[in-house]
Structure formats: structure tokens, C-alpha cells
Write a structure and sequence with these properties.
Length: about 190
């Protein structure tokens, strides 16, 4: 028994916050990780990373999805039966995770065109100059390029229920090359 009492504090020091998180994990975290990746860092290019997203943004999205106001076929039924307090725990967990930068080749010309376009469109006004998001505006920096590109096209062409119409207006008039460049720039921000 003395050995266990001596070992427990040592393990806690070695494992740190990870040990504490396993004791009080939000509900359905394993299910979230299946698509959104370990600690919310997606390994699937079409799925967003949730790590480091603003807590309020994640809370709002989870409520919209649970209530059927955002139609995401892969999420159908995943949040059924969860209380608001459960969604708050999930949002808090993901907002506290550290985003892992994506590794990939950067096309300097596309990156610069996207940077100039993002600056001229004042994207950093809402999403912040580092594009890490705030409150109800998502973190764009370091998301998968293909995910960003698809979402921007959806906002531009057919923003469904539960989507921010401000983004529809912001992207109106951009052509596909513009969206490609913006997605490349945002995905490769470190």
C-alpha cells in the first residue's frame, strides 16, 4: 500500500494534465476523436480540427447540430440526449487543446495571394489578425486546406440553415481561384 501511495504522486507528475483529463472527460469524447482526431486535431482533410477553437463558437455549433439547425449528415444522432451542460464540457475541452500545425508544402505565390486577399477583405477583423478566432468566430489558422476551401464555397454559393450570413456576403463575388488562395494561406499559417 505504501508503494502505491508513493507511486501515485509520481505518476501524476509524469502524466500531468493528461491524467486529470481522463478522470473527467466530457461525454462522447472518444466518438468525437474518431473524426476530429486526438485532442481535436483532425487527421482527415475534410473534417475540421476542434483544438483551440473558441469555446463559445464550439458551444454554439454543438447546439445548432444537436437541435438539427445545422445539417451535418455524419453528426446525425451523435449529440442526441446530451444536455447543454454536456455540450459546454465538450466545448471547454476542445477550446483548451493545443492545435497541432499541419505539415505540407507551401506554394509561396498562392500563400502571398491569399494573404493579400485576406488582408484586403479584412478577415482579421472578426477572426483576429492571427486568424485564431474569438467568441463566435472560428479559428481558421491551420485548418485543413480542403476543409476551408469547401466551407468557403458553401458559404459563397449555398449557405444552409445555421450558417452565418455575414460570411455569405463576405465571400460573394470571389472566384474559385480566390477561394483556393485564401484556403492555402489560412491552412499554412503557423
Amino acid at each position: 500500500m505504501r508503494f502505491i501511495c508513493t507511486l501515485l504522486p509520481t505518476l501524476t507528475l509524469l502524466l500531468g494534465p493528461a491524467a486529470a483529463q481522463t478522470q473527467a472527460q466530457p461525454p462522447r469524447l472518444e466518438l468525437c476523436a474518431a473524426c476530429h482526431g486526438p485532442q481535436g486535431n483532425s487527421q482527415i482533410p475534410q473534417i475540421p480540427s476542434l483544438a483551440g477553437q473558441p469555446r463559445i463558437f464550439v458551444e454554439n455549433q454543438l447546439v445548432l447540430i444537436r437541435e438539427g439547425l445545422r445539417d451535418i449528415p455524419a453528426m446525425k444522432g451523435v449529440l442526441d440526449g446530451l444536455k447543454d451542460s454536456d455540450l459546454i464540457l465538450l466545448a471547454k475541452y476542445f477550446s483548451e487543446q493545443v492545435p497541432v500545425p499541419l505539415a505540407g508544402p507551401v506554394d509561396t505565390a498562392r500563400f502571398e495571394r491569399g494573404k493579400v486577399l485576406a488582408h484586403s477583405m479584412l478577415c482579421g477583423t472578426c477572426h483576429l489578425p492571427d486568424y485564431k478566432g474569438r467568441e463566435q468566430m472560428p479559428r481558421l489558422a491551420g485548418q485543413h486546406e480542403s476543409f476551408l476551401r469547401a466551407v468557403m464555397e458553401e458559404y459563397r454559393d449555398k449557405p444552409g440553415p445555421g450558417r452565418d450570413t455575414v460570411m455569405n456576403n463576405a465571400l460573394h463575388g470571389l472566384n474559385n481561384q480566390h477561394l483556393d488562395d485564401l484556403a492555402h494561406f489560412l491552412a499554412n499559417l503557423r
